[in-house]
Amino acid sequence: MKQTFLTLPRPFVCALIMQDSLEETIAAAHNADFAGAQAIGVHMRMMPAEDKTPERLAALTQCTVRPVLAMHYRNEPGGALTDEDRAEFLLNAARAGASIVDVMGDFYDPSPREWSGSEAAVARQRQLIERIHRAGSAVVMSSHMKESLSAEEALTHLRSFEERGADVVKIVPQVNTESEMQEAFRTILLLRRELKKPFIYVAGGRYGRHQRAIAPMFGSMLSFGAYPAHCRETTMFQQPVETLRALQTCLYEHLDTDL
């Protein structure tokens, strides 16, 4: 039976793929599987609209035994889409068999830190999450930001996502100094202790790669690996899938990550 994003043994390696067409995405997914990826993450924003119908996306979810994570962030070519458009593409991915889809924490209300406190926007987010669940997929709610956060800020942020109905919660702050790296380590211990849902806590910035290597040892559910390794901006902080699988085999599998 095909594993889901929520049933895979943790931590696991999820390949991140961003290609210009469905055919290229399928080819990359095949190769990422053979490279050792245990899940496939697909950035859909570069793909044309005609490739993002339920029928077309089904070819992607059915091409691999690995669970598929579908994402559609705002920085697509031209930037002409609305959040309503993106929501429909995410629903199409759910209908096509994606194991989990990514709903941004400021959906329907673009906001600093990708977190919205608007009651109207949050109500619409809850409705979208319910629709995705009815379509058969789980939901990860995420925020990416260009600043650092304290441990308490990160916890409050992600608890709000739990309350909105997300199955997995994700946050990506910046870690640029030694003191911010120390705080990042304190953060992951706090999140592991206090959150009820599985979480993804990875960082950007100068110490992003360091934090991403440590995070799976202390509760973050996965490692994101670039595939292929030259895949646009995904290479800035993600190591190649093969490197992460080697790290997993040599280190993570020999540690008790449920301390």
Written overview of the protein:
The protein is an alpha/beta fold and 259 residues long. It has one domain (12-254): TIM Barrel. Helix content is 38%, strand content 15%. It has helices at residues 22-35, 54-61, 83-95, 119-134, 151-163, 178-194, 208-214, 241-250; strands at residues 12-17, 39-43, 68-71, 100-104, 138-144, 168-172, 199-201, 222-226. An 8-stranded parallel sheet has the order 7-6-5-4-3-2-1-8. Helix 2 (54-61) links the parallel strand 2 and strand 3 (68-71). The model has no long low-confidence stretch (mean pLDDT 94).
Keywords:
8 helices; 259 residues; globular; eight-stranded parallel beta sheet; TIM Barrel; single chain; alpha/beta
The Rg value, from CA coordinates, equals 17 Å
Which range best describes the helical content: under 10%, 10-25%, 25-40%, 40-55%, 55-70% or over 70%? Answer: 25-40%
Give the strand content.
15-25%
Low-confidence stretches: none
The average pLDDT score comes to: 94
Strand order of the largest sheet: 7-6-5-4-3-2-1-8
Outline: globular
The structural domain count equals 1
* Gap between N and C termini: 29 Å
Helix/strand/pairing class, anyone?
Answer: alpha/beta
CATH topology-level fold name: TIM Barrel
Helix-strand pattern: EHEHEHEHEHEHEHEH
Q: Write the CATH architecture name.
A: Alpha-Beta Barrel
Number of strands: 8
CATH homologous superfamily annotation? Aldolase class I
Q: Note the main sheet.
A: 8 strands, parallel
State the helix count: 8
CATH class (first level) name: Alpha Beta
